[in-house]
Amino acid sequence: MMSDPKPTFYTSWFCPFAQRVWIALLEKGIDFEYIDVDPFKKTPEWLSVSPRGLVPVLVHQGKSVYESSICIEYIDEEWPENPILPKAPYQRAYERIWADHIAKKIVPPFYAMLLKKETELQENAKKEMLEQLLVLTKAMDPTGPYFAGSQVGLVDIMLAPFAIRFFILKHYRGFQVPSGDESPFSRFNKWYIAIKERDSTVKTSASDEEYIGIYKRYTDDTGQSLVATAIRQGTALP
Amino acid sequence: MASDKPSLYTAWHSPFGWRAWISLLEKGVEFDYHETDPYEKSPEWFKISPRGLAPCIRHKGKSVYESTICMEYIDEAWPCTPRLLPEDPYDRAYVRMWADHVNKKIIPHIFGMIVHQTATEQEKSKQDALDGIAAYIEAMRDGGPYFLGQNFSMADIALGTFGSIFFCMEHYRGFKVPNEAKFVKFHDWIQTIVARKSWQTVLPPREQVLEDWRPYAEGVAQTELAKAAKQGKTP
Questions:
Q1: Are residues A93 and B72 in contact, defined by beta-carbon separation less than 8 angstroms?
Q2: Which residue from A65, A94, A101 is facing B93, i.e. has the nearest CB?
Q3: Tens digit of each residue's pLDDT, chain A (238 residues)
Q4: Distance of residue B215 Cα from the nearest chain A Cα, in angstroms
Q5: Does the distance separating the beta carbons of A234 and B231 come in below 8 Å?
Q6: Which residues of B touch A61 (CB under 8 A)?
Q7: Which of A50, A89, A99, A184 could form a disulfide with B77 if both were Cys (CB 3.0 to 4.6 A apart)?
Q8: So what's the ipTM on this one?
Q9: CA A74 → CA B66, B89, B214, distances in Å?
């Protein structure tokens, strides 16, 4: 599709949801324009590109796609080389089921751990995170190293940005995924090592210092994002 | 030997379950229906549906769950007409974005208006639901009668299941989608949707629907759904 204009990727450098789409674009080898936005500035121009005012947004041929998993499926279908999702219906459903698990069971405790003021609630979030990571780990292909086997797929991309931010949870909350060959998380740790050193992860990640700095506002309760507000109110994430 | 004939595990009263049920009916797929109470957390149930969620489709020895994932699976496993998602990648993204909108910006408020017990909270849920519905209508393509225009899709099923029982929200909370200009398209759309054979097959009698929602409206339901709905979180 050489005549089609290249897509524009609207992102914020610190946003893990946007990082997912960035990773997918790199994995596919797609030529794209990168625009960093401040999603807290809800200007009319920005809202015409992104109706929900959120990143990530992919604009292609004048049309906007938003929601990270929807962007990834769009990328996969519009540029079919180097597939991110498998072909068989059940394998596709399996990827979507575990991507949904990440969204509903892993992302919320990630933010709760940082945003909640009470130690008890932080501890509950840690416990929840480990429980749900274990469930995900058991769903992984036994050999790997990636979720479904030797190829990177949707679930890897959906989880990677959060996994590489786990050191922030350690820094602010003392959270750690247990290590060691005998640990029930050994398969998860094998996955993590493989995903962390992948080119697409390295190229889309900021420095440790930059992440530690930007996440401070969650821990001191000054976070203004819709995610922070939802966690504080105990409602569903946007 | 794993069967090629799918089994649908679902609860008769669940609009989430109707999404999967309607999808199978629309496709003309032969399937076994299993009436299920997903709150009965038996070991047998978890063998069928590992996260204990309904609807769940068992097909060729595998389980697919989460209603939106079920709809996509059904469309891909049985790619005959009607297609639940169109061919073009952008149109597919469009259907997914608006099905996601239904799940995040409409359904939680439908539940919210029922489970909240104070008038203030109920009124807020009603307004939020209407805002979500207004956005969905505005996103509808011209040509009608369906969300994408001439073609039926998963976006119609996503809202149309809940939309077909709005009488229940009216009964308990006085919720009505107005007849004014902004919402006229909704009424034309839902009438067309509900008239489809698949909807007529799954929709329970009106009295049964009202009775099923009563514990939620009266604040006595103890189900996980009730607890989640109070927090604005629905499956």
A1: yes
A2: A65
A3: 444 689 999 999 999 999 999 999 999 999 999 999 987 888 898 988 998 899 999 999 999 999 999 999 999 999 999 999 999 999 999 999 999 999 999 999 999 999 999 999 999 999 999 999 999 999 999 999 999 999 999 999 999 999 999 999 999 999 999 999 999 999 999 999 999 999 999 999 999 999 999 999 888 877 777 788 887 777 778 8
A4: 22
A5: yes
A6: 90
A7: A89
A8: 0.95
A9: 20, 6, 41
